[in-house]
Amino acid sequence: MSAPATSVGTASSRALRGLSRGADVVLVGVTPPAAPEAAAHLAAVLEEVCAPTTVRQLPGGACTALTALADLAETSHDTPLVVAAADLDTDLPALLDLLDRPGVRTATTVVARDGVDRGLEAATLVRVGRDGRAVESVGSPAHVVTAPTHVLLGVLRVAPEHRAEAARLWRAAAAVASDGWSGDVADLAVLALVRGGLRVGAVALGPFRWARGTAGGAGAAGDPWRQRLRGASRGGDGFFSTYAVRPVSRRITAVGLRHDWQPNVVTVVSLLMGVLAALLVATGWWWAWVVAAVVLLLALAVDCVDGEIARFTRRFSPLGAFLDAVGDRVKEYAVLAAVAAVAVREGQPGWPVAIATMVAVTVRHLENDTYDHRIGFARASVADLLPVDAPRDLGPEGARTQLAPAPTRSQSVVFWAKKVIHLPIAERYLLIALTLLTRRPMLVLWVLLVATIVAVAWTQGGRVAAVLVGRDRTWASVPRTEGPGHVDEQLDLGPLARAAAVGRGSFWTGLAGVLVLLVAAPLALWTDLPGVALAATVVGSLMVGQGWQAPLHHPLDWQAPAALWVAESLVVALLVHHTAGVMSAAGYAYLCAVAYHRYDTLYRQRDTGAAPPAWLSTAGLGVDGRLVLLLVVAWLVPGAVVPLLWVAAVYLAVLYVAESATGWHRWIAAQNRAAQDKEGAA
Description:
Elements: E1 24-28, H1 36-50, E2 55-58, H2 62-73, E3 81-85, E4 88-90, H3 92-99, E5 107-112, E6 125-128, E7 135-138, E8 150-158, H4 163-176, H5 185-196, E9 201-204, E10 210-212, E11 215-217, H6 224-231, H7 239-258, H8 263-283, H9 286-313, H10 318-345, H11 350-379, H12 409-422, H13 425-436, H14 441-468, H15 495-499, H16 507-526, H17 530-547, H18 560-580, H19 586-608, H20 615-619, H21 622-636, H22 641-681
Parallel strand pairs: 1-2, 1-3, 5-9
Antiparallel strand pairs: 3-8, 4-10, 5-8, 6-7, 6-8, 10-11
Helix pairs in contact: 2-4, 4-5, 7-9, 8-9, 8-10, 9-13, 10-11, 10-14, 10-19, 11-14, 11-18, 11-19, 13-14, 16-17, 16-18, 17-21, 18-19, 18-21, 19-22
């Protein structure tokens, strides 16, 4: 189905990847007599995407059709099997994320409530897990699904390695099914797989046109490829990004698709724009600050373009994960540094406030991402496993059996207000840009600091309170690991703390150690007692090492990385303040290097599934080792603290960036080899 000349992108950007090429394609159910053109259109779409030998059609009742599906599934284990409802009418771009996207195995397309604008009562309801990744339960006229979240589009893809299991489950379902079942066979096929324990992924339908019987949706404005461009925007963005940044970024993306821009090049351009904004700010000129504000917001829009191009074309690069991991922080922290430098030139305490702002922003990310990993276990999709002839799934009695109603206006206002308070990246960039227009550097820093503190208090305060009052519903799902887990890898404990890891650790011992680092050591520094601060740091580090041994497993363990980061930052900030006043950027540079390592650890865990090697904590001394070294120098040679911070900043930056680049390069190479091997096998 070639796109019209006026549509989005070039032939290359709309090209198929062939990930379902050669699939066996079957239409099940009865083609509506009133819509022969729609049936022919669907068959043509599937032929273009899958290039099957033939498109089979299996009419008949549930028992007959399920048996025929089982027979077909057993004929080959080398190619996917695509099952589609014969009465489905949609367009090629709508099916690409299911049939032509890397990483999709056995899955079906689901439609959210806002994608159905007519005939909802005739649609097949399903429940998708809270993580949005898999189908948990499927309804039909003979099967009740509780707490449904979506409806089925009517297309199922079965991965080659799952065809044998699908055949077994369909044959078992056919043995107990009744041809009197009035449900659509395409949906019953999904039901049999889900209830039988074969994981069926959930692929969300974008804003596309679709129709099936009396149910359907008009989709977004424009032709199918323009609808695909609209759907290329990432979901879950904040208010400013959703309603201001994304409309701009999609226009830029449309230009990029017409010229075959590469996503990674776009990411680098966005990074350079952020650096340019920082350089403009550093001049101190009023007009340059106005231009910097505009450039920073444009950099934010361009930063969205790389992901939109990748999602539109379904061409995802492992290198893009690394570039995204560092680009946003480099831009944000470079602008903060430039603002602080201007403030200091004008005799204002820019660096302490810039340090506090950077620390708060980093705390927000460390806390949020670590907590998201933790609640991922509670949100994981778990199918209701039960016989196909059971009339009801495993949901509680009294649970709703219809889709939840659309949110009211007041609910939408509350939802977006919470999003804004959470202070996602677009809102932070907007605050920076607006305050840059005032040409008041301390106002820029203080506004962002206060807003970030409010965001941290909002998120952490509510989550900690839920744990303390026993209302945390996620902890029971978190498994205990045998070795170092997600949180352990983020602690960055050095040789001193690790040496204390003997006996049975207690979380509260480690927490008490952190409080010593957060309160006793800074208080001693504030009162000009570096020797006492050193002793407190040694004691606190030993307590942390003894209490927070791997694997750390406690309802509050997700707070640990952020707490250690704050402790190190507070000591460094006080050291600089007492030895060099507010005029030195050494503390900011040092903490930027450490922050890079913490972000790198977080992103590598998330994107590659592996943390940096253990030797890196030894080479970088860990939190405890770095603090002890700095305090020894502050005690014995106070004048050497700032030079040491500069040397440490350079050393840590080289160490962490070099190891990070090596680790990401190794992972990227492995991903590319795996992709080549897969293409070769195909």
